[in-house]
Amino acid sequence: MKSCKHKREIYNELRNNKDPNFRVYYRNYSKLLSTVIKKAKRMEYDKCILYSHNKIKTTWGIIKKEVGRSTSRIEISAVKIDGKILNNQQEVVGEFNKYFANVADKIKRHVNKNSIPMNDQKNEVNFMHYMNQDFINSYPNINYNCSTIKEIENIIKSLKPKNSCGYDEISSIILKLCSPFIISPINYICNKMLRGGVFPDRLKYAIINPLYKNGDTWDVTNYRPISLLTSFSKIFETIIYTRTLEHLNKYNILSSEQYGFRKGLKTDNAIYKLTTEILNSMNNKQLVAGVFCDLEKAFDCVDHDILLTKLKFYGITGKDQALYESYLSNRYIRTVIHKNDVNTVSSEWLNIRQGVPQGSVLGPLLFLIYINDLPKVLNRFSTPVIFADDTSILFSHSNINDLSRNILTTIEILNRWFRANKLSLNFNKTHCIQFKTKATISDTFTINYNNNF
User: Fold this and answer.
1) pLDDT of 82 higher than 50
2) Terminal Cα-to-Cα distance of the chain (whole angstroms)
3) Strand partners, 350
4) Rounded Cα–Cα distance for residues 237 and 192 (Å)
């Protein structure tokens, strides 16, 4: 601050002092001060990122600040429903809650019946057709072992210290402070859950905060639901998660083409795999193309009956499967709109009948299990690279017509699999890209899948 003040003093003096040497001094001082400020700012940003509990979020916050993008929360004052503007705050929050609770039903009702040619719709198959076709081995049944006080203690220690909380208004910070006094009863309840196959009902309630994405601020579809579960729920879910993941890893069940939500794997690995496959095919004088798929609300559209059947297929049976059924059933959400730091408007509780819980520990793992058989369906003509629900499929061939035919065949298989698993492929945001070199720039094709692609 003193240096900036001194710079202003020099500038004011320079207006009356025409000495060239004094002007040079001012310029040099300004450059030096600018360099010092930049370095100080960088050091401060580095410190913020280093000590942040969410480094990616902090980094993007800094980037948005530097490029001038607003990071402030959009105040929700009204919504437009069927052309009618609602500004009563209780009605507004109620419409948001209804949208978030029923979005999957709406998507499934509007799945394009023409996404599979009419003459082929009779040939659609059940999702188990793909499971039985592509998985030969039967997997041993899992048996969840009991939790221990030490395990509960380590889970609580691993929770990120946050002030945010679920409907019970108990943050992870408070939970950590209280942990020495409550570890024993928590461990007792966890073991009762594992033995009985029943997930506690009071841990199935989530608070939803609408987060604006883009577009019309009156349109509820332009908001993303940010879900807040209780901190206690994360303890119980982690107990189940570690045992399930151990079983999946022990028998190498998860597909190697899946890079999302897996320890030691990240987007860099998926991108490296994608680019390596493309470059290798080009070096082998092959024609290369990729199909990049977009699914509509994939996590929200997970069918519980299908998921439970797949869990059983992979060896999660009996009371352990019943525990997952209990975990998925009777879940409720309530949307909350913050008017300021003090006042909030809350909706009624609504039941969620499908999808995996957002903001949960188990949700991502359950989704990986749900789509685990997809890569085996695609491996015949292509190389799939999947990150959670983002599905990229690479094709290569020496002949342009065969390449085009393989792409079309795979899209048909892909779309049938999605429909069998009650997921919706968004053709408007699904794209086919041909990767060319100078030698193959004249080799071009078009894909037309039932006028949708």
Assistant:
1) yes
2) 59
3) 333
4) 14
Three-state DSSP at 397 gives strand
Domain ranges for the chain, please list them.
2-67, 73-110+141-254+304-353, 112-130+259-301+359-453
Separation between Cα atoms, residue 110 and residue 299, nearest integer Å: 17
- Residue 35: Cβ within 10 Å count: 10
Give CA angle at 10 (7, 11), nearest 5°: 85
pLDDT tens-digit series, residues 321-342: 999 999 999 999 999 998 766 6
Mean pLDDT of 211-238: 92
Report the candidate in 285, 352, 349, 334 with the shortest Cα–Cα distance to residue 105: 352
233-247 in b/e form (b: 16+ CB < 10 A) is bbbbbbbbbebbbeb
Which of 330, 312, 331, 310 has its CA nearest to residue 321? 312
How far apart are the C-alpha atoms of 7 and 344, rounded to whole Å? Answer: 47
CA angle 264, 265, 271 (to 5 degrees): 150
pTM of the entire structure? Answer: 0.85
List Cβ neighbours of 275 (8 Å cut-off, separation of 6 or more).
none
> Which residue is it, tokens 């100080």?
40
Structure tokens at 344: 């909030």
Q: Is the pLDDT of residue 116 over 60?
A: no
Beta-carbon count within 10 A of 195 CB: 12
Q: pLDDT tens across 164-192, in order?
A: 899 999 999 999 999 999 999 999 999 99
* Fold of domain 112-130+259-301+359-453: Alpha-Beta Plaits (3.30.70)
> pLDDT value at position 270?
94
Residue among 155, 157, 152 nearest 186 (CA): 152
Provide the strand spans (E) within 94-242.
205-212, 223-228
